[in-house]
Amino acid sequence: MDASSALSPTIEVVPMTQPDRDPEILAPQDWSFPVDIAYGPGRLAEIGARCRGLGIANPLIVTDRGSRDLPFLDRLRDHLSEAGVGSGLFADISPNPRDDEIGAGRALFRAGGHDAVIAIGGGSAMDGGKAVCLTAANGVDLWAFEFEQPVPEVAAPFPKLITIPTTAGTGAETESTAMVTAVAKGMKFCIWHPDLKPALALLDPDLTLGLPVPLTAWTGADAMTHAIEAYLVPGFHPFCDGLALEGLSLVATWLPTVVEEPGNRAARGGMLAGSCLAGVAFLKGLGLVHAISHMVGAEYNTQHGLTNAIVLPVVLRFNLQGQEGQAEKVRRMADAMGLADKSADALIAEVERILDEIGIPKSLAEIGVPPDCAERIAEKAIQDSAAGTNPRPASVDQIRALVDQAIVKAR
Q1: Domain ends where: 207, 242, 265?
Q2: Residue 194: how many CB atoms within 10 A of its CB?
Q3: Which of 16, 227, 294, 340 is 20 to 30 A from residue 188's alpha carbon, by CA?
């Protein structure tokens, strides 16, 4: 199920229930790191003026199929029109974007004479929009941008890119990285280019108010996974580590609240900010949760955040229990989550408690992943770039055992 596929019933907006935590969380903010970010409720209304300020006259809006008929698209196009900015719409992105869909978006961009891309929606829309932007103005093949390949030269500058997330999970709004499925291989790969950066990321918590409760939980668990996996990646990177810990703190504070109180705007704001921080943090890398989840999603079209959430406890036990050298990182994550017990067992137990509280299934089998795929998934997962930054090296046999465990009973 895609993260923007349906609207929940009308949600009552409620006041903040944790006033001592980030009391200015709903105040409009403009941040300039790592890209220009406009944060705050109601800021979608600024999109027309923002486009005009960036010299954008005719953007192509890219979103997923499930968002095609959602109200935020009409609001976006109305705001653009009021500012005298034209627009086109490409809404044929799957929950796990495919390379053939990116080609169709590129063709529409060129046929419509567009000069920019606005990616709006959940993670699939972000990935689809960024992939279209990478290929729209040049003749470079999509897969030349694959992360582990040499960076391709492009003759023409990339079109301007604006990202507008409507879920608080993927954190994909500040970078060019995108996950796309190679249909012929049945595998997901990361594509990117260092010269493509969003000209603006617009974070409006009000856009997430209509997200159904299950999708709120799944995407929120995705943000938690990003923060944890990014922080555990080895190496000295204080910028990403600091963002990962603050992102984890925000998500641990607000995720249970936003699932319990879907109309809580403060919780929506805290989750959107935490998701963004965790998304920046994983520039450092990710781990086996994502390596496995990418390949499960490519084969079985499972929702990415939900898949991550199920696999997370299995990989955490593999990475943390009985492993020397992780005690300090475990302690700092426990501090970020407000835990008195700083042990790995307590940290894993708290993650599992949150997953239970927000209704995450306990096994991949419950979301349609068959028991006979573990060997194939493991052979693909070990080729994923995220496997290379996992804090504990793993063989194909070890990954297969993790997949087997996640299929049967992850927690």
Answers
A1: 207
A2: 8
A3: 227
Closest CA to 135 of 159, 119, 169, 112: 159
Q: Are residues 63 and 129 in the same domain?
A: yes
The Cα-based distances of 152 to 134, 145, 148, 194, 195 in angstroms read: 11, 7, 11, 10, 11
Does residue 147 share a domain with residue 194?
yes
Q: Is residue 75 part of a domain?
A: yes
Residue-wise pLDDT tens digits, 347-406? 999 999 999 999 999 999 999 999 999 999 999 999 999 999 999 999 999 999 999 999
Dump strand ranges (E) for 85-206: 88-93, 116-121, 160-165, 178-182, 187-191, 200-203
Judge contact between 132 and 60, C-beta under 8 A.
Answer: yes
Structural domain containing residue 194:
29-207
pLDDT, averaged across the chain: 93
In whole angstroms, what separates CA 408 from the centre of its chain? 26
Contact indicator for 122, 216 with CB cutoff of 8 Å: no
Q: Beta strands 116-121 and 59-64: pairing type?
A: parallel
pLDDT for 84 beyond 70: yes
How many Å apart are CA 299 and CA 373, to the nearest integer? Answer: 10
d(CA 378, CA 382): 6
Residue ranges of alpha helices (H) inside 71-212 are 71-82, 99-111, 123-135
Q: Is 361 exposed, middle or buried (0-12, 13-18, 19+ CB in 10 A)?
A: middle
Domain boundary among 179, 207, 235: 207
Give the separation between CA 295 and CA 298, rounded to whole angstroms: 5
Residue type, 149: Q
Residues 18 and 8: their CA atoms lie apart, in Å, by 24
